[in-house]
């Protein structure tokens, strides 16, 4: 049995060795069998024993082959499963990456299992690497999206890192990545817009703090610590809360600026009024130029640093209080100054007032101390305001009164000019007087229409106010009525003088003709001029009867002109004929 066991082991070892080299199996097995036969012969084994041992060898060989087949079958199964898993993994990668239409699957007909695995392995490696890259890209984009969202909502604090987002590895397609990129671009644009808005608001806060004299650092950090200039621009908060607080702070600062500016302008107006009342020197006023320079400026125009600072307002208030105390001690002087202004307004409007009584009343009120200085000045200011309103209502009528008075002066000058016997002499200035006389005649002709208009406007003014229009203590309508009557009397006097003059000239002409030709001689007709037309005008204007015997102009036969009346001469008649025979306006 021991020999049989050893023989069996030898055969198995030979078989195992020869399975690796099939070419040597037949030779080796035959030589072994021969050796076995020799051994059996030497031992003297029986045929039965030999058959049994050979059968046992065959069975053991079959068992070895069976195990090898099973092992090979398991290996094939594992390879097939590996191939199926690889194909499934490949399909999953293609599906996740969205590249199904770009790569085709290898099938069984394309090669052995190992060949198919060898074909799939590079694709799996390539797609796996691509998937890892795609996952990193998705992670980066989604991380940026979450970060910007956190900055916008305010849930992400400055310098705080966000957690890595969960990436859906089943959908890593470029389409999905493009969607994330588009979303990221929108968020980046929104972030940029918000950042610009934040920077604009911060700049506005800085400008307002400079104008108001406030500390910018403490003001801006109260809104959010990240808004400080020392922190990077990209690190500043852009959340809705920050924008809301910034906008509210800007509105509050603008309202504060507006309130302070109004207060400062009121103080500047008070200072100006007090300076004007008290005749403060320009040198002292210039000390507060930084206060009065914005007296009429708008809120947007005030941009100088510290222009509406609290200490500036306090300084102006202290100066106003000091001037108010000084004003109380100079009340009488200030009140008299305002009274003088009031009297000047009434004088310009030709309204008479009791100036002495008003000043005595001011002295009595100041000495009694029963009236506050500000109330007394306010009352005089009200009187000045009413006087100015009265002056405005009388302005149009007073302007026409001035024209009327000027026309009356010209009319008076024209009367004196017409009575001057030497007005036509060739002396210096005679031509100027002649031009003035022509203009005066035109003005005098327009005077009746001016008076009628003035009467109508004066009556309308009196009907509207229920008062008489008084001009220097006299009713204006009474003055106009008196002038109208006087003018009518002068016009009537001029008409009678012209009639008498015509009668007198005709009488003189008849007398001269009788003297020259005699009463019994035949009357010779007037000498004709070169055209055969009688020169009647020359004979009437240059008649010798207009001269006395001694060669001088005869003025004794002319009736005397009454006072304030215009005397008519022959030369003026000729001049009037050249202006259209305006006998009603001619002297």
What does this entry look like structurally?
- This protein has 587 residues and is mainly alpha-helical.
- Among the domains are: 261-393, no CATH class; 394-421 and 431-515 and 548-587, Methane Monooxygenase Hydroxylase, Chain G, domain 1.
- 71% of the residues lie in helices and 1% in strands.
- It has 17 helices and 2 strands.
- It has helices at 2-19, 25-43, 47-97, 113-153, 174-212, 216-223, 240-278, 282-285, 289-292, 310-329, 331-348, 355-368, 373-418, 430-465, 476-517, 536-541, 570-578; strands at 470-471, 474-475.
- Strands 1-2 form a two-stranded antiparallel sheet.
- A hairpin with a 2-residue loop joins strand 1 (470-471) and strand 2.
- Helix 1 runs antiparallel to helix 2, helix 7 runs parallel beside helix 10 (310-329) and helix 13 (373-418) crosses helix 14.
- The longest helix has 51 residues, at 47-97.
- It starts with a helix and ends in a 9-residue tail after the last helix.
- Residues 1-15, 17-26 and 520-587 have low confidence and may be disordered.
């Amino acid at each position: 049995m021991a020999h049989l066991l050893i023989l069996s082991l030898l055969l198995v070892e030979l078989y195992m060795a020869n399975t690796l080299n099939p070419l040597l199996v037949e030779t080796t097995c035959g030589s072994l069998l021969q050796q076995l036969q020799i051994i059996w012969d030497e031992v003297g084994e029986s045929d039965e024993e030999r058959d049994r041992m050979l059968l046992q060898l065959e069975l053991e060989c079959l068992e070895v082959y069976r195990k090898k087949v099973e092992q090979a079958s398991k290996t094939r199964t594992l390879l097939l499963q590996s191939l199926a898993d690889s194909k499934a993994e490949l399909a999953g990668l293609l599906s996740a990456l969205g590249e199904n239409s770009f790569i085709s699957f290898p099938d069984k007909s394309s090669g052995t299992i190992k060949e198919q695995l060898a074909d799939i392995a590079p694709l799996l490696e390539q797609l796996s690497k691509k998937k890892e890259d795609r996952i990193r890209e998705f992670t980066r984009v989604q991380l940026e999206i979450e970060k910007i969202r956190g900055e916008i909502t305010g849930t992400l604090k400055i310098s705080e890192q966000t957690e890595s987002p969960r990436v859906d590895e089943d959908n890593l397609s470029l389409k999905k990545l493009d969607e994330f990129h588009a979303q990221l671009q929108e968020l980046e644009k929104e972030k940029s817009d918000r950042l610009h808005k934040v920077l604009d608001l911060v700049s506005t806060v800085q400008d307002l703090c400079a104008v108001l004299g406030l500390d910018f650092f403490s003001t801006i950090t109260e809104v959010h610590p990240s808004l400080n200039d020392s922190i990077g621009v990209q690190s500043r908060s852009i959340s809705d809360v920050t924008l809301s607080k910034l906008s509210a702070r800007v509105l509050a600062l603008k309202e504060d600026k507006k309130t302070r500016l109004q207060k400062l302008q009121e103080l500047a107006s008070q200072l100006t009024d007090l300076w004007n009342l008290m005749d403060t020197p320009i040198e002292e006023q210039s000390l507060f130029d930084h206060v009065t320079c914005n007296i009429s400026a708008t809120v947007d125009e005030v941009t100088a640093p510290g222009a509406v600072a609290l200490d500036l307002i306090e300084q102006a208030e202290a100066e106003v209080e000091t001037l108010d105390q000084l004003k109380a001690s100079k009340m009488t002087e200030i009140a008299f100054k305002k009274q003088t202004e009031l009297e000047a307004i009434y004088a310009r409007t030709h309204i008479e007032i009791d100036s002495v009584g008003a000043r005595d009343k001011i002295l009595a009120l100041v000495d009694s101390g029963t009236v506050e200085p500000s109330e007394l000045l306010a009352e005089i200011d009200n009187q000045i305001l009413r006087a100015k309103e009265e002056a405005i209502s009388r302005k149009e009528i007073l302007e026409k009164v001035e024209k009327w008075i000027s026309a009356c002066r010209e009319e008076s000058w024209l009367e004196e000019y017409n009575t001057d016997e030497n007005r036509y002499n060739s002396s210096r200035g005679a031509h100027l007087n002649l031009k003035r006389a022509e203009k005066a005649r035109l003005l005098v002709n327009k005077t009746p229409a001016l008076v009628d208009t003035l009467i109508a406007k004066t009556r309308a003014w009196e009907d509207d106010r229920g008062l008489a229009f008084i001009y220097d203590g006299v009713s204006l309508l009474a003055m106009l009525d008196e002038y109208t009557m006087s003018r009518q009397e002068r016009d009537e006097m001029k008409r009678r003088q012209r009639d008498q003059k015509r009668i007198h000239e005709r009488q003189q002409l008849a007398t001269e003709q009788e003297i020259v030709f005699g009463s019994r001689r035949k009357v010779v007709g007037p000498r004709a001029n070169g055209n055969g037309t009688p020169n009647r005008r020359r004979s009437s204007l240059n008649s010798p009867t207009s001269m006395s015997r001694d060669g001088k102009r005869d003025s004794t036969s002319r009736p005397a002109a009454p006072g304030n009346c215009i005397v008519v001469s022959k030369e003026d008649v000729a001049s009037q004929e050249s202006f259209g025979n305006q006998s009603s306006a001619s002297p």
